[in-house]
Amino acid sequence: xxxxxxxxSSNQAGDRKQSAIFCDMCAEEDRRAAAKTCMxxxxxxxxxxLQPHLTTPVLLLSHPLTEPMAPGAEGLGGTKCPxxxxxxxxxxxxxxxxxxxxxxxxxxHRLHNMKTLPKAHxxxxxxxxEGERAVAAKRQESEELGKWEQSKREEVSxxxxxxxxxxxxxxxxxxxxxxxxxxxRMGCIATGGSxxxxxxxxxxxxxxxxxxxxxxxxxxxxxxxDLRKGLETGQERDKLSQELQKVGAEMMDQATKLxxxxxxxxxxxxxxxxxGTANATFDPLTLGHEMTLSADRxxxxxxxxxxxxYGTINQCTLMINDVNSTAPPHRWxxxxxxxxxxxxxxxxxxxxxxxxxxxxxxxxxxQLSYLKANPLDTQLGAMGTPSSHPIGVVRPKTVExxxxxxxxxxxxxxxxxxxxxxxxxxxxxVRNRSSGLKPFVKLQSSLALQTQSLAFNSGWKKHQQINSLxxxxxxxRQNRRYxxxxxxxxxxxxxxx
Length: 497
What we know:
Layout: H1 2-19, E1 36-38, E2 43-45, H2 47-55, H3 57-62, E3 65-66, E4 90-92, E5 97-99, H4 101-105, E6 114-116, H5 117-201, H6 205-223, H7 235-266, E7 280-282, E8 291-293, E9 299-305, E10 315-322, E11 331-336, E12 340-347, E13 358-364, E14 367-377, E15 382-392, E16 398-404, E17 409-415, E18 422-429, E19 438-445, H8 447-470, H9 476-484, E20 488-496
Antiparallel strand pairs: 1-2, 1-3, 4-5, 4-6, 7-10, 8-9, 9-20, 10-19, 11-16, 11-20, 12-13, 12-19, 13-14, 14-15, 16-17, 17-18
């Protein structure tokens, strides 16, 4: 053991001695270790013989020095251009290679970004330092990424286990109950058949009559067996159906959550939950005539007489607040009745909505477009001339609005029936006006609704006039009763989800 260690140490010492660079100007019998190598002279020098290169101005400027290098292809020979045989004095930052003066002036590098070796060295060291800082920042972010991955992994595992439990519960409830029911009915039929066979085989009159009562009972039960698939009709089946619907709803909910969690795990930018959307509410002070809100202020209704089937609301604007903050919500979802065109977004002031000074998404006359108020003054960020940009004809059923103050972007997403899936419609840069914006929704009855409402209400008024002429005038009580038969109904205008 000691011998092998000694041998290894001697080998390492030999390698160091063999790799040592000696001064080319020293006498052979007293060669000292080289301190520098002159790339132009192509010799290595000890501290004593190096002094002329350090003290002579011409040599100092025109003879580049480097760390001691051994002669050969991998050492000193690598300091010359293989094409022109000249000293490599420049560095091409475009091709990241050392070149000679001929390469820099005459050949393919003549139009490239060329630096002297010391200057290129300094610049690239600074670039690496910047890269090191960027990598350090990435390293910190990667720690957050690791924590996020771990939390999402646990979330997916939890949803998976809950879904498995719900599926197992649903399976066991169904299989066990149905299997018991089918087995019981088949057993009843088998018992009836056995009793019949036993009775038919009995030749003794006395014993046959003694058996007949039980045989008849088994036979009638077998004849009455309900062979319809599933459970037998009755309270047990109804009770089990209710239990299964409850467990099935739980299973579907867990399946939806699991699918959403997995999609958010893979592609969180386009599949994500909407935290904070429950805080958005309609401002009751902006309610129009014949409009009401739900108790949680997240649903807006129109109230109108039953006589007027389509109501009288042609246009209205509702502002949106955050129930837990004085600041506007940064994220909210909204669904609007198909009978109304709409504009959804942010405005600087409620009075400027009519002029179109808004940042928003608009659906009008079967055309989807986005609105952007151009800045009137870049420094002040005042809203100037509005502009409309068509982007399609497909009407989103549910729109999610996301305001990101970090990158000054206002994004609109089309949300599918699944709460976790969304697709980007458009993203607007509101950098020139990023503060003081207020969320709103503007509703305007569609052209089709206006046409239907006009035709219906006109026909209804004529119908009332005819009835008033034909109705006998027998006193105020009958008139009052007829008037009371007309009552108010409500229709959903829009809803925050």
